[in-house]
Amino acid sequence: MNSLVSIASYSNSLQANIVKGRLLAENIPATLANEQYINADWLLSNALGGVQIQVPAEYEQQARELIESIDNGQFDVSDDNKIDQLLCPVCQSEDIQSNNIFWKTSFIVTNTLHIPLPFSQHAYSCKQCQHEWSEENDKAYSIGTILFYIVMLTVIFSAIIDGLFLLRGFL
Ligand SMILES: [Zn+2]
User: Fold this and answer.
1) Cβ distance 95 to 127 under 8 Å?
2) Residue 152 Cα, ligand 1 centroid: separation in angstroms?
3) What is the Cα–Cα distance from 83 to 66, expressed in whole angstroms?
4) Are 43 and 34 a contacting pair, CB within 8 Å?
5) How much distance in Å is there from the Cα of 101 to the middle of ligand 1?
6) How far is the CA of 123 from the centre of ligand 1 (A)?
C-alpha cells in the first residue's frame, strides 16, 4: 500500500490548489489534506499545520524538486509576456514609478468620515529624467465622481449641523 508523504503546506487552499495543479500537470498524483477543515474554519489552519500537499512516497523526490522550482520562480510569467510595460514618454525608459497621489487623502477620509474614496495609480514619474505625467484617459476623479462626493459631504455635514441644533434644543 502506498503511503502518502506531506511535502508542503499552505495557509489556505487557494495557494495549495495552485501548486497541486502544477504537480498534477507533471503527472504527480498529489492530494490535499485538511483542505475542507480549513475552508470551513480558517482559524484552524495553524492548528492543523495548514493545507498540506501529499504525494505517494515514490513521488516525493520529484515533487519536492518541482515545488522548489516553483518557489524559485521558474513558472512565473516571463518579462517578455508582461503586457502594458509603461515607458517614459520623454526618454522611453522603463525605470518609472507610479505615484499614489490620492491614497493618503483617501485613507484619512475613509477612516475619519467613513466615506470610501476611490483612488488609483494614474500618475507616473520617470526615475531617469524626472519627467512626470498622468494617463489622460484614466482620470481617478471625473467630474461625476467629484460632484457625487460634494453632494455626499453636503448631506453628511448638514446632518451633523441638524444634530447639533437638535442637541441644543435638549440642553
Ligand atoms: Zn524619462
Assistant:
1) yes
2) 40
3) 27
4) no
5) 19
6) 14
CA of 98 to the centre of ligand 1 (A): 13
**pLDDT tens for each residue of 87-125:** 888 898 888 887 765 667 777 777 777 776 665 556 788
Separation between Cα atoms, residue 86 and residue 92, nearest integer Å: 9
| Positions of E strands within 118-160 | 123-126, 132-134
Q: Would you place residue 34 in the very low, low, confident or very high pLDDT band (cuts 50, 70, 90)?
A: very high
Q: Which positions ≥6 away from 158 have C-beta within 8 Å?
A: none
DSSP state of 78: P
**Centroid of ligand 1 to alpha carbon of 122 (angstroms):** 16
CB 23 within 8 A of CB 55: yes
Ligand 1 centre distance from Cα of residue 118 (Å)? 28
Ligand 1 centroid distance, CA of 94 (Å) = 8
**What's the CA-to-centroid distance between 136 and ligand 1, angstroms?**
18
Q: Is the pTM of this model over 0.90?
A: no
Ligand 1: centre distance to CA 124 (Å)? 10
- DSSP string covering 83-96: ------TTT--S-E
Single out the residue of 99, 17, 1 nearest to residue 9, CA to CA.
17
